[in-house]
């Protein structure tokens, strides 16, 4: 009965349905208008995510999503020679993997709105603090990610969107417009605080609205209660009968 919006990404997407999460807020925004479906996979990079595409986005689907966010890069940008190097994906491959995702989604539904979302900035001090609180003396001295390296992935994500004529959300830049962004928007130097989630929610709603997908103008799935005649309720549902 309702169209669907799919959120495809790593743990930042996977956590988006937690209290205060941007996915939960998006569900509230589109309540009774569209179903918001989370497909977030903690620790995944774009290389591993490619194996999921054909299982999540079926080529023969009769009811494909009207919009999908692709939100990867935080793990791809993990540095070689540091703790999370197994997640590292070279920048050229990262961009090519995003392209393959877009091409697959377009095969599923040419009219689907695809929104590329960059990784957020990295608060390196926050990552070190998180490591010390988690591992104590065994914590690595250097963070496994840097803001400088993540910037390259963010810029390539935006660049690809421009090349393909797709909308994008540059979280890396957007969040750093605010003073004290590291503590304000990131809980551990990487994942989002409620305030960080609010930024993502606001940006996703903006981009969807600019593309014509606005909860304000979308119809309810069933009649609003004010349209139901208490003495003759079936009249409000006649148009649903086959």
Automatic annotation (TrEMBL):
The keyword Hydrolase applies. The keyword Lipid biosynthesis does not apply. GO terms for biological process: lipid catabolic process. InterPro entries: GDSL, Iah1-like, SGNH_hydro_sf. One of its GO terms (molecular function) is hydrolase activity, acting on ester bonds. Belongs to the 'GDSL' lipolytic enzyme family. This is GDSL-motif lipase/hydrolase family protein. It comes from Tripterygium wilfordii.
